[in-house]
Each structure stands twice: as structure tokens, then as C-alpha cells.
Design a protein that fits this description.
binds S-adenosylmethionine
Length: 258
């Protein structure tokens, strides 16, 4: 489980992009006041923060299997209904929600088809299910450049965890197909591009050393010399930034109706 890490470290890792992504995804899903929503794989609550601005915390339900994340969600959103659980077995009645979100989650599911079926089941007729997954093979700069650097210093080791080749749903049509296969209709897909700011290269690098996600998991598995070489190669491939910089990230989204 690569998400059994402190919520603050995830926030500094991919979480840095998640609220901008959540804002765009919520807009695509047609969020409006009074709706009941479920955030599947809510992580540290970046999307929940966006949802709470429109709906209020008490209209939000969240599920995640990570113990530290669920603890953080309980503290951050005391009026929301937060449960520890998985997408593959959602603990809710059929038709409980107007909108169900899975932001940056379907690629981590043990059984994505079952997870998609469960998300459809708990959505009311006419409600929508929305997902987003990073463009791992293209323009998620923070991760794609990391894996390029990892491959350059330890090709065989990196290949065992490289998200560019190992993640399903990295192609734009894949989540659309998952949603259609789950029986959702009028499925729309597209790209969302967001960016994140860093104070300096260390600001980007430190959260990898907390072992967050497959990339962090790989970074901490290395011996100190190899880890230092990876750090240097990653920095070089990002243009050797000295001070503050920004990175862009593209996600593919899919939204379907029950
Ligand atoms: C990359 S994080 C995304 C978190 C958050 N949605 C965001 O946008 O920042 C992936 C999340 O999926 C969760 N996850 C992993 N396996 C899961 C499963 N089977 N069911 C639901 N969530 C899962 C992880 O615990 C983690 O919080």
C-alpha cells in the first residue's frame, strides 16, 4: 500500500495538483448546490475541499482504504461522512448519490471493472460518475520526467514500477471504455491541464523520499548513491532549476450518466 503515508506528504506530492484538477472535474460533472456526492479514493481531501465550497461538508461522503488519509479526512472535514473502505465494495445503498467522483483512483484499483460497477450502482438514475487519471505516458511532467530519469539510472529496477508502462487507463479512451463497460451512457471524455508551483527543486524532491505512490516507493528502494544519482538526473531533465518553477500536468477525464 503506497498510500499509507502522512497526509501532509501526499499534499506536497501529487496533492499539489489535486485541487485544481478537482475544480475542473467538478465543473465538468455539473456540480450544483443541494447535490449529494461521493468521493471514492478521496485521499487527503483535495477534491472534498472543492466540493465543500459548493455543497457544504455535510453533503459529502468519502471512502478511502488508507488509514492515515481517513484519519486526516475526519479531522479536515468533521461534518462529512468519511469511511474506510474500497471502491470495489462501497458500503452504500443503490442510488444514494447524485454524483460519484473517482479522481486519480481507477488506475490504483485491484479490480477496476468491479469498482466502476459499484460506483454506477450507488449513483441515482440520471446521476453522473466522473473520473480522472494522469496522462502517465505523456504530459504529467512531474511523474513522466521522474520515470525517464529512473530508467536512465536503473533501467531494470525502474521497469518494475514505471507508471508510464504499468498503469492502466493512461490512454484517453481507456476510462471512457471502462465507464461504457459498466453500463454508463452519454460518456464524455477529454483532457484537463493543471499546474503546480515549487519553491525550488528540493520542494519537489523531498516528498519522493517519504515513499508516496509508486515513484516514491522506487526512490526509497534505492541505495544512497543511486538515490543521489536519480535526484541529479531528475533535476537535470527538468532543466536544473535554481529557484522557483512550475510544472504542468495533464489528466484524462471521463463522465458518464446512469
Ligand atoms: C493518487 S491518490 C488520489 C487521492 C485524491 N482522490 C486526489 O485526487 O488527490 C489515490 C487514492 O486512491 C486510494 N485507493 C487505493 N486503492 C483503492 C481502492 N481499492 N478503493 C478506493 N480507493 C483506493 C488511495 O488510498 C489514495 O488515496
Amino acid at each position: 500500500m503506497t498510500f499509507a503515508v502522512a497526509a501532509e506528504m501526499y499534499d506536497r506530492f501529487v496533492g499539489r495538483y489535486s485541487d485544481a484538477l478537482g475544480r475542473a472535474l467538478a465543473e465538468q460533472a455539473g456540480l450544483s448546490p443541494g447535490m449529494r456526492v461521493l468521493d471514492v479514493g478521496a485521499g487527503t481531501g483535495k477534491l472534498m475541499g472543492v466540493l465543500a465550497e459548493t455543497l457544504g461538508e455535510d453533503c459529502i461522503t468519502a471512502v478511502d482504504p488508507s488509514e492515515p488519509f481517513v484519519a486526516a479526512l475526519g479531522e479536515r472535514f468533521p461534518a462529512a461522512d468519511v469511511r474506510r473502505g474500497t471502491a470495489e465494495g462501497l458500503p452504500f445503498e443503490d442510488g444514494s448519490f447524485d454524483v460519484v467522483f473517482a479522481q486519480l483512483v481507477v488506475n490504483f484499483l485491484t479490480d477496476p471493472e468491479r469498482g466502476a460497477a459499484e460506483m454506477r450502482r450507488v449513483t441515482r438514475d440520471g446521476g453522473v460518475v466522473a473520473a480522472a487519471v494522469w496522462d502517465y505516458r505523456g504530459e504529467m511532467t512531474m511523474l513522466t520526467t521522474f520515470w525517464e530519469a529512473a530508467g536512465a539510472i536503473d533501467e531494470r529496477g525502474a521497469a518494475t514500477r514505471d507508471e508510464r508502462t504499468r498503469m492502466r487507463f493512461g490512454e484517453p479512451e481507456e476510462v471512457v471504455e471502462l465507464w461504457r463497460g459498466a453500463g454508463l451512457h452519454d460518456v464524455q471524455g477529454g483532457a484537463i491541464v493543471v499546474s503546480a508551483s515549487y519553491e525550488n527543486f528540493n520542494d519537489l524532491w523531498e516528498p519522493f523520499l517519504a515513499g508516496v505512490g509508486p515513484a516514491g516507493d522506487f526512490a526509497v528502494s534505492l541505495e544512497p548513491d543511486a538515490q543521489a544519482a536519480l535526484r541529479d538526473e531528475y533535476r537535470r531533465r527538468l532543466g536544473s532549476p535554481d529557484g522557483a518553477f512550475e510544472l504542468q500536468a495533464r489528466a484524462w477525464y471521463a463522465i458518464g450518466t446512469k
